[in-house]
Design brief:
The complex is a heterodimer of chains A (353) and B (482). Chain A is an alpha/beta fold. Chain A contains 11 helices and 11 strands. In chain B, 32% of the residues lie in helices and 13% in strands. The longest helix of chain B has 19 residues. The chains are: A alpha/beta (353), B alpha/beta (482).
Chain lengths: 353, 482
Amino acid sequence: MSTIRILASDGLPAFLSFLSQKHQRVLVPVVKSANKRSVIFEPWRAGMPVVLEKATVPPKEAVLPQCETLLTYKKSKNQEDLGDITVSLDDTPEALSTAIFACRPCDARGFRVLDRPFLNGLFPDPYYKARRESLTVFTITCSSGCNTCFCHWVGGGPSSPEGSDVLMTKIEEALMLQAISPAGEALLKDCDLPDGRDIFPRAEAARKAAWASLAPAPDLKQAPQKIAALFGNDDFWQSQTSGCLSCGACTYLCPACYCFNITDEGDGFGVHGGRRLRSWDNCMSSLFTHEASGHNPRMLKTPRMRNRVSHKFSTYPENWGTFSCNGCGRCISNCPVSLDIRAIVLAALDNAG
Amino acid sequence: MPVLNSKELRIVGFLCNWCAYGGADTAGVARAGQPTDLRIIRVPCSGRVDPLFVLKALLEGADGVLVSGCHPRDCHYAAGNFYARRRLEVLKRFLPVLGIDDARFEYAWVSASEGQRWQHVVTSFTKRIHAMGPAPHFDDAKPLLRVADMALTALRPLGTAQNAAVNELKQVIKDKLPELNCVIGWQQGYDGAHATPLFMKTPEDVDKLSWGPFNVMNPAVYLPLFKGKKTGVVVKGCDSRSVVELLQENLIKREDVIIFALPCEGTLDIARVNEKLGRYTRINAVAYDEAGVTITADGKEHRFCMNDFAQGKCYGCATPMAVLADTRLGEPHKVNPVSSVPPELAMLDDMALSERMAFWRGQMERCLRCYACRNACPMCVCRDYCVSDSRNPHWMSQDADINQKLFFQTIHALHLSGRCTGCGECQRACPVGIPILALRQQIARAVAQLFDDYKAGLNPAALPPLLGYEAHEKNIHERDWK
């Protein structure tokens, strides 16, 4: 049996402080109060109040920042021959060893979705790799389902261990910590928390209760083929996306979306030099498909949303054998017009054509 | 020597080629001594100075910005400075809401022959900036989080519109449907506590139409997409103002839009409703009564009284019924418009400049740049051609820093000068709850102060104030620079 520890609620700061000794940053969910309250992952500092809620924004930033500098460059001219320009580059990946504390199983599975294209392809991404290899994920299992969640439709569940190093389950006022990966095993062995083997059955019961609270899931096995077959059916996509505003809220809140844009800023001369930036991009934006010729093959929101749904439920599964949607439901609950990706997928399954 | 190491401050000057730049030249030729803090950018006309130039300078580290051009009624072209005067005055009244001292920005009229006046203007402005010292930066502020007080009294009784003539309206829409491309309205969303837009094309679609406090989305946002196709739209009072504003700006044609209206009794602040509901698996029931809604989720009852859970904009709303409509069914409550400060803005009014800067620092940090605010805005008709997406010129860095994020909000707010109807969709759409509506509210307040209490989207025939000018502005006074 894997290592199991118990963390009393008053022991949380001490445990986070232990984690900060092992990592350069520990990301924890904190409340940002405003008229619309949100929960965001932030680097932990002593005294910071932590909430064990599902975050509004997933901790994807830990491996794929909103914007990162891929390289900096400096150009200098030879004063004897002004056409002779020397370029110097620095492309060392910036990677802080990071622990994520209390993300949800859907968030942890998101890292697995990102791993495939970034690490398992022909060319592993060195920036992603550096961050991913120094990442430890502490996941807290969900105690119940939620009206917008559908993790169990897509192969996950409220206590799915996929992508986590340590799986935690809340039992009354304490947390049960269960090591999943060798890294998690090592960390739990190293910490001074008491053994929790005797409460493991209670945690198991809590996890079972969470599963029992879920509404039955539809069978999505046919989704990849069905959605692929609908590619040219404009009427279908139009009727499904008429309310879409073509903003990027769904994409940027998705733990499994990983598209990015690369921009060179600064001409490289002078003291500041220049930087090549990689920043989040989304298939809802016009720039996403804007070609150098000026032509844009996706001028309407319909093919943009079709791309989003197809990628998650058809093309990604074709390439990697699993959906690139973890059913976290953030795109539904945060959509300004309450567009529901579940409804689109179900409509595609129902579609006779 | 780099500017920062000397005693100089960074002052950026945007000077009209024909007057102020000539004036600076005249001063130079006359060997009139001037402070050397000013960095001059020559522009063809003060009308060319987009307020964004000024904001970009201030956000990226300028300690002061001076715009100067020809005297009013003396524009080298015709009316460039008249337009500039209105824009710059609105900008001046906008800066404090961000936490930027408006004294750091000034505009002045100097002709090409007025070398002495130029010397005087630039000397006194530089003195003023030196007296204030280097400008504080958003990056250095300590984040401050504060929540607006939503315990408000509405101008009219808020309710759930139980007696609205929805069935009659459905019949009217069905009758009109054959001549329309579609009719935009609302239907139940993914559960009974959330609505989603409805695009009615068939009588069966019309049967799905809902009317009530969950209809928060503004359907006017879709109208410009249907340009040239005759489209119907069901509106709340606030939505109708967006339709009117689109008409004022010729962005849609009156003959292309059929407006259906019912009296609105207020809509719910879904963010606060969601917060109270918490995590739930399913909604069992949604029961309406005169004063509110009771939502039963996972067997637990939650009561939402409209007076406590309405959207901020509903409390001060004076247009429960559409201001323009082809079909109006029902009578709204009488409302006596009272000038009041919206709650989000009132919160900022109570803060010192440094606190406002800290506030925006704390709020904008979590912005994801998803542009839901922009895309949910019915007045943001540039869509795919937004300045934020422009690469040539490269207006905004892709950097995820607070200055860039705030810069976009100021772009949005300033582009809404005299156009924003205060529908609040920008703020409602923000997935991380940044209270950005306050910036638009401040712009609307400045416009109302300057242009005889002008409010956008009330009269389809009215010219939006920033699209026009008066040779003698009633409320904009020349600075005398004495």
